[in-house]
Specification:
The chain is mainly α. It has two domains: 12-93, Dipeptide-binding Protein, domain 3 (Roll); 96-165, no CATH class. It is built from nine helices and three strands. The chain has helices at 3-6, 16-29, 48-61, 75-83, 101-108, 123-134, 138-141, 148-173, 176-181, and strands at residues 38-45, 66-73, 89-90. Helix 5 (101-108) runs antiparallel to helix 6.
Length: 182
Amino acid sequence: MPPEILQTLPGYDPNVAKNRAEARSIMEKLGYGLDNRLKIKVSTRNTPFYRDPAVILIDQLKEVYIDGELETIDTTNWYPKVMRKDYTVGSNLTGNALDDPDQNFYENYACGAEGNYNGYCNPGVDELIDRQSSEADQEKRNLRSSGRATALFASLTFSRSFLVRNRLTEVITRSPARRLRT
């Protein structure tokens, strides 16, 4: 996706200070701040490739009034925990070796996909994936040249973030700080 389009999506502005200020503002509206920080657990597999990004995430969350505690899970227990959705914030890795978006989109983002661990489902995104997949013209098929790219990417970004937001939103809105403000 061209940088000028990417930076219009939430959280992708190259001005990190501005992004963090916006996030702090959202948290403050929910009753959180320096004296009232949201405490969460960040769950991940207990291997360096999973643990290290989770530690970086915890460090970055501190900038927006969120204190994360690392919860490392033995590999044999990780996927059952994810499938049960037994986490508040889950740090996971997804990769593929194919240079074609179909495999990634259908496996990880489509409604009911096996790798769609958080269960996010948007029939509109499924339709965009199907249209992109059935496009014979390679130039049109390339998401970067398509007007659909922004809508698809924004929704897919939300989908991956939703793994965090799904339960985190519940934690935020049910917290004592939130109840005091409503």
